[in-house]
Amino acid sequence: ARLKNDFVATISHELKTPLASMRVLVDTLVEGRVTSPEQAKEYFRLISRENERLTRLIDNFLTFSRMERNKRAFDFAPTDVAEAVHAAVDLVRDRCSTPACTLEVTVPEGLPLVTADRDALVTVLLNLLDNALKYTLDKKEIAVRARADDGSVCLEVSDNGVGISRGDAKKIFDRFYQVDRSLSRRTGGCGLGLAIVKFIIDAHDGTIELDSVPGKGSTFRVRLPIGPRDETALKE
Is the separation of the CB atoms in 148 and 111 below 8 Å? Predict the structure, then answer.
């Protein structure tokens, strides 16, 4: 009951933040309090970014609702992993555009197709990238890599952040679990991102692994089988 109460409170806070930001920006534009076309363009860019943030939050909450009902309805189809990687990277590129952040993307041509829900795969990558950005403090070095490996496509998201201890690593895929609650409060989050990642990967007959050293960073490694599935959708 306490976890559910915390979840409701977190939802309210997480949704209010981008909505409040967009309201301030829109009011400023409507009232004509911008000094140049460049400033107006920047405000529109910020509104777009907050809208994307709000969309990601809602997608995560809806996925969590599906988890609670054990409803695993995905739209499986042959999926270009490289396209999904670039789509996810494009959604966080603005957050990586500061001098204190580098984002390295390594995706070779000719990767085999996997049978997946494309949007769900993008959600997986977004959640891993979001964690990498939130839990890497000053000089951020983020890397996304993809490769074919022994009958599967392997996706890796690495960072040079705070890292995760061996004890915490056993719990990070649990719902509502947060390694550092004080840091989570500052950066935003409710302990659902990795639980959602695990839920999606399991539904795709894949695996996820973690390599991490406290104080030095983490690498999340997702493996998705190459080729068709026996079933095109999972039932309730």
Answer: yes
